[in-house]
C-alpha cells in the first residue's frame, strides 16, 4: 500500500519550439497541481524562456523543475543560439536541427537512468523516446501538440492516399473513411506527402508513425466536447489510447501567468489591457500568426491595408524588427498615424491569451496553429483562418466546417514559414465577416458556447479534469504493477 501513496514523477520532454514548449509547461503545471512531481527536460536557451514560470510555480508549492541538457551545436554544425525550430529557416538548417534533436537521446537516457521517472511524456517529434522508455520499463505518452481532428485527417490521408488519385495539385479530394466530408487539395498538404525525396523530417515522420503504434498512449491538448467524433475515431477506429486534458492554457489564471507564456512579451501587458479597456466589447480584432510564420514585406503591407480598409479596431502582432536604418519597409506611408487610437501594432511577442480573453476582443485572425486555435476557442471568439504550413490546413477545416466559428481568408497553398500570398481585399472582407453583421453574430454565439464548454471541461468533474484523473490513476496502477514485477 505504501507504493499507492508514493509521489509519481513524470518527465516532460517537449520539442524545441514554442508551439510545443508552451503547452508542455501548461500541462506540467496541471499535473503538478494534482500532486505529481514534474521535471521538464530542455536545452539552456529554452530553459531560460520558461524559468520564471517554473520559479513561480515552485513558490506556489508545485513540485516542478527543469533539467537542462546541452544542445549539440558543434556536432551538427549549427550556429550558436539556434535552439528553437522557428530559427531553422532553410532546408539545410532544418536538416541539422532534426539531427540535433535526435542527438538528445543520450543525455536524456542519462537523466532517465539517474532520476528513474515513472513516465516519459514526449513530443511526437522524438519517436526514439518510445524505445528509450521501453528500455527502462516506463510508459511513454506522446504529446502531439495538435487536435484529434488533424491527427485523424493526416492518418487517413497517409493510409488511403487520396491525393494520389487527383489529376492536379488544385483538384479537391475528400478525405476517405472520415466522419465528415472534408475537402482538401494536394497544395494544402504538408510537404511530407508531396515531396519524393527522403529528408531528416520525412525519416522522422515515418519513425513517429511507427512509434505511435507501440507507445503507451497519447495526451491531447483538447477537450472531448470540441471534437467528440474525432476523439472517438482516434481511439476506436485508429485503435489508440488517448487522454484529452485541455485546454491547458486555461491553467493560467492571473495576468502575470498569461503575459509570460513561452517568452517575455514585447509590450507591457497592463498597458495593452488598458488600451483594450478603452474599447467596446467585441470591437477589436486580434491578428497573430504564432511563433513560426514569417511573412514578407509585401504580405505585411497587404495586411496593413486590409485591416485599415475593414475599419475595425485591431491589435496586430508583427514578428519584424526595424532594419538598421530604423525603417520599416512593410509599413504603408502614414499608416500608424492614420490608425492611431484604433490599431495597435505589437512588434515581437504578444501576451496572447491575456489579449484574447479581454472582452473587447471580438475576433481573431489566426494561422490555425493548434495552440492558437484552441486559445481562440477558449476565449469564445470567431476566427479568420489563415493557415500557413504544418498541420494548420486541417485545423482550418475543423474551425470552419465542423465548429462553424470561422471563415477562411482563402489560402490555397501550404508554404513553410512564408505562407501563400493573400490580397488586401480578401483580408478586409474576411475581417468584416467575423466582426460585423448577422453571420458574425451567429459565429460569435457558437464560439461563446464552445468557450463555456472549454472552461467547464477543465473544472472539477469536467471531461478534461476527469480524463486527467483517469490518466493519473492509470499511471499509478502501472507504477504499482511495475514495482510488483520488479519485486518478484
Ligand atoms: N504566442 C504568444 N505570443 C505571440 C505569438 C504566439 O503568446 O506573439 C503563443 C500562442 O499563445 C500559442 C503559441 O505561442 O500558445 C503558438 O503556438 P501555435 O500552435 O498557435 O503556433 P506555432 O507557433 O506552433 O506555429
From TrEMBL:
<dbReference type="GO" id="GO:0035251">
    <property type="term" value="F:UDP-glucosyltransferase activity"/>
</dbReference>
<keyword id="KW-0732">Signal</keyword>
<feature type="signal peptide">
    <location>
        <begin position="1"/>
        <end position="19"/>
    </location>
</feature>
<protein>
    <recommendedName>
        <fullName>Glycosyltransferase</fullName>
        <ecNumber>2.4.1.-</ecNumber>
    </recommendedName>
</protein>
<comment type="similarity">
    <text>Belongs to the UDP-glycosyltransferase family.</text>
</comment>
<dbReference type="Pfam" id="PF00201">
    <property type="entry name" value="UDPGT"/>
</dbReference>
<dbReference type="InterPro" id="IPR035595">
    <property type="entry name" value="UDP_glycos_trans_CS"/>
</dbReference>
<keyword id="KW-0328">Glycosyltransferase</keyword>
<dbReference type="InterPro" id="IPR002213">
    <property type="entry name" value="UDP_glucos_trans"/>
</dbReference>
<keyword id="KW-0808">Transferase</keyword>
